From TrEMBL, chain A:
<protein>
    <submittedName>
        <fullName>Collectrin, amino acid transport regulator</fullName>
    </submittedName>
</protein>
<keyword id="KW-0472">Membrane</keyword>
<feature type="transmembrane region" description="Helical">
    <location>
        <begin position="147"/>
        <end position="171"/>
    </location>
</feature>
<dbReference type="InterPro" id="IPR042944">
    <property type="entry name" value="Collectrin"/>
</dbReference>
<keyword id="KW-0597">Phosphoprotein</keyword>
<feature type="region of interest" description="Disordered">
    <location>
        <begin position="176"/>
        <end position="199"/>
    </location>
</feature>
<keyword id="KW-0812">Transmembrane</keyword>
<feature type="signal peptide">
    <location>
        <begin position="1"/>
        <end position="16"/>
    </location>
</feature>
<dbReference type="GO" id="GO:0070062">
    <property type="term" value="C:extracellular exosome"/>
</dbReference>
From TrEMBL, chain B:
<dbReference type="GO" id="GO:0016324">
    <property type="term" value="C:apical plasma membrane"/>
</dbReference>
<feature type="transmembrane region" description="Helical">
    <location>
        <begin position="551"/>
        <end position="579"/>
    </location>
</feature>
<dbReference type="InterPro" id="IPR037272">
    <property type="entry name" value="SNS_sf"/>
</dbReference>
<feature type="transmembrane region" description="Helical">
    <location>
        <begin position="83"/>
        <end position="105"/>
    </location>
</feature>
<dbReference type="InterPro" id="IPR002438">
    <property type="entry name" value="Neutral_aa_SLC6"/>
</dbReference>
<comment type="similarity">
    <text>Belongs to the sodium:neurotransmitter symporter (SNF) (TC 2.A.22) family.</text>
</comment>
<feature type="binding site">
    <location>
        <position position="403"/>
    </location>
    <ligand>
        <name>Na(+)</name>
    </ligand>
</feature>
<keyword id="KW-0812">Transmembrane</keyword>
<keyword id="KW-0813">Transport</keyword>
Amino acid sequence: MLDKILFLLCLASALADERCMPDTPHGFQVRLSIKTALGDEAYAWNENEMFLFRATLAFAMRNHMTGQQFNVSNIVVCDETERVSFWFIVTSPLDTSQLIDQENVEAAIRRSRNRINSAFLLTDKTLEFVDILPTLGTPYVHPTPPWLIAFGVVMGAVGAGIIIMLVSSAVQKKLKTNKKPQDKDEDDEEETRVKTMENGVARDGVYNMSFSEDERFTAM
Amino acid sequence: MEKDARPNWDNPMQFVLACVSYAVGLGNVWRFPYLCQMHGGGGFLIPYFIMLLVEGVPLFYLELAIGQKMRLGSIGAWTAISPYLGGVGLASVVTSLYLCLYYNVINAWSFWYLFNSFQSVLPWAVCPINANRTAPIEECEVASPTQYFFYRETLNISSTIEENGGIHTGQALCFLLTWVITYLCIVRGVQSTGKVVYFTATFPYVVLFIYLIRGFTLHGAVNGVKYMFTPKMDQLANPATWINAATQIFFSLGLGFGSLIAFSSYNQYNNNFERQAITVSLINSGTSIFASIVTFAIYGFKATVNYENCLERTRILLLNTFNLAEDTITLDNVLEWIKKLNATYPEQFNEIANDTGNCSLEQELATAVEGPGLAFIVYSEAITNMPLSQLWSVLYFIMLLLLGVGSMLGNITAIITPLRDFRVVSRISSELFNGLVCLFCLLLGLGFTTTSGNYWFTMFNDYGATFSLLFIVLIEVITVSYIYGIKRFEKDIEDMLGHRPNWYWKIMWVVISPLLLIVLFVFYIVNYIMGGTPTYQAWDKEQGKSVLTEYPAFGQVFIVLLLVSSVSCVPLTALYVFCRKRKHGKPLKQQHALSTVSA
């Protein structure tokens, strides 16, 4: 594996394009994290994969700059490392001494980013083009915010609960006042008080003023 | 025979559960674990339990006794004990009012988070993307997604207390919902409260238990629990430890608000409150410890996740800088590789030296947070890392809600009960009166849902109910022990329970608790004066963190107003009663005393 890379490097340097070097102003650095992305199913990086990369990039350039027939030879790669990172530059198909400027290359890659990623079974994070920020997907905008739905449900339930409570106490009070004329005959202080305590719910806290006054003075 | 139109609890269990529901609140979850961590882990339990025995249980017993004997809310009860000291009850009501105004905002936040949990991706797990779709929103990048969600999307916080914007509609709606639910729980007074507390008192324990199991099965949880419980005994020599233990017990039990007096005033005359006082206090402390075990398990998990993320970032950085093959560095040997690479390529390593070597599990564990920050930021961050996070999020926020609503019931009862003792008010039906009180608190509390609302919340939280409570309870215990007389009090208890209180209680009430309260009181005053200008944490959105800012002039004035308004009720009422006595002379004094005591 290592020998192959060394051989390639020598070959590449023999046909070297001196314009391709680390930190070149005309190209980009690429970083692949195959093992992180695929784990056990990771494939080995070899010259065939590199060929695929150059072909994919040529495809991207063709898509972006219509009319120009980019070839694999127009994509020059250098400075390959064990990390699986390398630099590349793009030469013009019409004149190999001309380099395609960075903006065009960047635009081309941005456009076909998805296709390039899928060719290698990688994602924006694991196939990094250093200094080219991926366009993040549009977030899904809900027509109604989901919290409002949950809120509506709970508010409705609680509101219904309150209405039921208020209506039931009003109804109980009405029943009490309907019964009262009949109870007046009994006129037993104790019993009415007992009734008050038994029906504590309906009579809660409502004070019979005249009652309490008399009782207190009588007691004293 | 005593006329008794006063409503009662259906059975003593309801009373106990109501007290438990009231005492076990958010402070048990977000204040106690912090104190435990700050003051030496397991060692903190020693001052905590000593203070519980010396201060917590006796004062709790005292308040229950007063309520059950007088069968009136705090104003009526203290007026009956000593007409000059009715102001103590009034101060309690004012303090409870302040608490009611701001406490429900926390419940509103819990609801907001609860409703937002019903999404496939929790909104506080990822940063939202900016308009260009190139990167996450800057404020979120600089801070963290959970902080961004809390400060920006929940509160929409302004940068200082002076700047104000409008009301946050989502917040306002949740706030309205909270008050509607509070009204529903108290609409018929004790009859409805008594039923609700069965649920609010018990369900939080179910959730805590579920979380305990979940917490201990999380990766790295044991680190947190070990860290917390390792006692650092040297902290016991620090006086701040003992002071904090005392104040924690004091505030955790909810003394001085008048809620306990209100609750026990609905008891049967011969209810055995002595046993109940001990039970509730022990349950409250036990819950604090239980909650802090859960909290620290979660802390440990979060710290471990952060630590491992940090290691992962360092690993990628090393791989990219030195162009090594991917599988040479794994999470286990990152630290060795750092040393190796530093030795072999020193110049290259120097360039990235700042970003490496600062992953520390200890440091992650040592970040201690308390208060709403713990509940809404730290915990929600931990939840996003759990599998099935929506379920855990829903459970957690329901628990926070129940804890908050349970305490709220006690606070609002503390306002309603004394006011209903007045003849004028008792003519109105209880549903209407309770509704009016809730409406009043709702309208005033809407101010806390504005953009600067959180700063006002902090102000109320720090100053509204801390100092005044110490003052109130100090006056209470001195009144009962010396003005009313401990002998009379003993007799009252014997009348209710059938036996006199133990010598232990008497020593606590007469000597130890007042002394302790005076120490706490003095300490608070000294701290306030020495602390200089009061400050608060303002959220800086450029830096993505909170900065310490001083309160402006009107803020400081307001703080003084908060402190003075409740404390001054005591001397002002005493003065008022004194003047009325002098004006009306003796015979009318009897009638005056009668007209406020209506049972």
